[in-house]
Amino acid sequence: MDLLLRALRAAPRYLWGGFGALASLLLLLAAWEALARQLGPLALPPPAEAAAALQRVAESGVLYEQLAVSARRAQIGLALAVALGTGLGLLAGLSAGAALAARPLVTVMLGTPPIAWLVLALLWFGAGDGTPVFTVFIACLPVVFGAALQGTRTLDGQLREMARACRLPWHMTLAEVYGPHVLAYVFPAWITALGQAWKVVVMAELLASADGVGAALAVARSQLDSAATLAWIGALVAVLLALEYGLLEPVKRELERWRGAAP
Fold first, then answer.
1. pTM, full prediction
2. Which of 139, 142, 154, 231 has CB atoms 3.0–4.6 Å from 54's, for a disulfide?
3. Of 59-63, 87-91, 157-161, 180-184, where does mean pLDDT reach its minimum?
4. 107 and 35, same structural domain?
């Protein structure tokens, strides 16, 4: 009941934020329409033409099939990166020596472009699911690991001393002392990694797979079908917006309320 009441009280503010996002999307569509009139339909089809192409793809059933393939690959790679990156980052953050040793590795992994990992993945895993999954995993891992490491290292020393003085078990120390603070760092990193996962999986499919959204974009490119290209891009954007505003934003608001960070 309390959760329902909090959700009802937060609904006006949440809806107002949604109106702001809708206004920005409408402004983007207006700019798209104006630019399409200047460049012509071959270079940049207008929004109506892209929407018609999206409707045709959706009615054929191919849209949902390819989105499901890409979503599965992105989710597997992201889940592995979140689980391993958060756990290893937390463990490394507990030791100053481990933190110092890990930072150069994080820098190297962040500085290596995903396309380089994709080439290696092609050599290791071939053209199956392994290549996009591995590329997503290796691209998202340093983002999550670095956030967990930073969150653990920046914990207030007095809280650590209090946990030691009270002789809290290690699992209670992690859950009650480190957990809320580290979560403030890793949750935004998880959101960033989600967007990164979709971008990387599409790139990997474009170059190395016969199915998925990336492969569909490759077909549209080979046919010089700009409307279909924009239709697939629009479908991806719609999925990401639905995930952010339908799932992640409510969770974020609840976490901020719990931490007392939100007004």
1. 0.79
2. 231
3. 157-161
4. no
